[in-house]
Amino acid sequence: MKATVTWVNGEMFVGESPSGNAVVMEAGEKKNAVGPMEMILLGVGGCSSVDVVSILQKARQDVIGCRCELTAERPDTVPSPFEKIHLEFVVTGRNIKETQVARAVELSAEKYCSASIMLGNAGVEITHGYRIEEI
């Protein structure tokens, strides 16, 4: 994989992913774009959400929606790495089996989500939960 991050001005940068997509990032007090640490948090949520939805679809669950609500804790120091991240999945659908959702979340956490596994191996405490909303 190869990516590029180019300085625009101030604390704004444009990142170009290996797939050729671009994203604007900005650090500091005046943010007009997503911050780099926010990108990491969103990446964890996105990576795990892809797993959860895919696993539920393969289990033939009638999933209509899936939202991952993330909360994270960072110290008020420099550097300020994540210490804790909690992923709460809200799965919406019809006749969704709780056992299938629990299994999907567990498989993502322990086997498939490279982003959360990488951060967990680096010492970040990562926890997971879920809710099912029937339609």
UniProtKB/TrEMBL annotation:
Region forming the signal peptide: none
**What protein name does the entry list?**
OsmC family protein
Pfam families (UniProt xref): OsmC (PF02566)
**Stored InterPro entries:** KH_dom-like_a/b, OsmC/Ohr_fam, OsmC/Ohrsf
Phylogenetic placement of the source organism: Bacteria, Pseudomonadati, Pseudomonadota, Gammaproteobacteria, Cellvibrionales
